[in-house]
Amino acid sequence: MDTLVGLLPIIAMFAVMWFFIIRPAQKRQKNTAQMQNSLKRGDKIITVGGLHGKIDAVDDSTIFVVVADGTRLQFERVAVGRVVSE
């Protein structure tokens, strides 16, 4: 019985860590992966490096982005930080 009482604080700390740290991080990761898989031509994006552009073409693992001066750049899908909705 004493060992169960001794393990109770450790179990409680794990539960708190799960609900406040691990679970929200998993949800963010799932939402980011879903966003990156649903990219399509014409979406306005911001890369993780801060580059703003518009998607010109989409491949299996890469996207082609047109920036302000008409330059066409190739990026991995995972480099997209967010889609800008206007």
TrEMBL record:
The keyword Transmembrane applies. Coiled coil: none annotated. Its main location: membrane. Keywords: Cell membrane, Membrane, Protein transport, Translocation, Transmembrane, Transmembrane helix, Transport. The chain crosses the membrane at residues 6-25. InterPro entries: Preprotein_translocase_YajC. GO terms for cellular component: plasma membrane. One of its GO terms (biological process) is protein transport. It is a single-pass membrane protein. The keyword Transmembrane helix applies. It is found in: Cell membrane. Belongs to the YajC family. This is Preprotein translocase subunit YajC. It comes from Psychrobacillus vulpis.
